[in-house]
Amino acid sequence: MHSKKLAHLAIWILLLVVALAACGGAESSGDEVGSVDGAPMVMHPNETFTTESFTAAGWKKSKEYDTATVPESNEIWYGFFNQKDIEIRFYSSHEDALEFGVSAAEGSIEGAVKRSKGGNLLDFSGGSFTGYADFLVAGNAILLCEFDRTRCDELVANLK
Asked: What pLDDT sits at residue 124?
């Protein structure tokens, strides 16, 4: 009976070691940190971007929003890239973007889902776009992405 308990303990320890190794796995180039479903959520952690950084990458800025509703943000711009809406929220630093911006972005996406009717993320009745379904962090900026992160990933890849 004693050897059975030791065998079970050994299996649990082995499973724990494998699980811990899987969590610490992939090497990073230093430009990408963290992931969601295997794709990086945080990119260029050591860089600071401006609206000009993104317009030079191909993003078309359209309208500036008031920062009063997004704590600690410095600028908020609505625009588009490759026919998809992308809102960019700028913070003083990458650390501020992580500390304040991630929760604000998650709240915006959660609110969009709650406001949507019948699974439709578009609700123009209130005069604002509510179809942001994903986001990513690029340096000091949070990008809210229409429907998925595809266009945001492409835009960030164009940053120089």
From this structure: 41
Give pTM, 2 decimals. 0.69
C-alpha 99/C-alpha 102 separation (Å) is 7
Question: How far, CA to CA in Å, does 46 sit from each of 24, 52, 95, 102, 113?
Answer: 21, 18, 10, 17, 32
Tokens of 95: 């650390």
β-pair type (132-138, 39-43): parallel
Residue 138 lies in a domain: yes
Question: Could you give the number of structural domains in the chain?
Answer: 1
In a domain, 88, yes or no: yes
Structural domain of 83: 30-157
**SS3 for 96?**
helix
CB 145 within 8 A of CB 36: no
CA distance 62 to 143: 15
pLDDT at 28: 35
Residues composing the chain? 160
Helix, strand, coil percentages (3-state) for the chain, rounded to 5, are: 40, 30, 30
- In this prediction, the residues of the chain whose per-residue pLDDT falls under 50 are 10, 14-36, 38-39, 117-118, 120-129
- With respect to residue 115, please indicate whether it lies within any of the assigned structural domains: yes
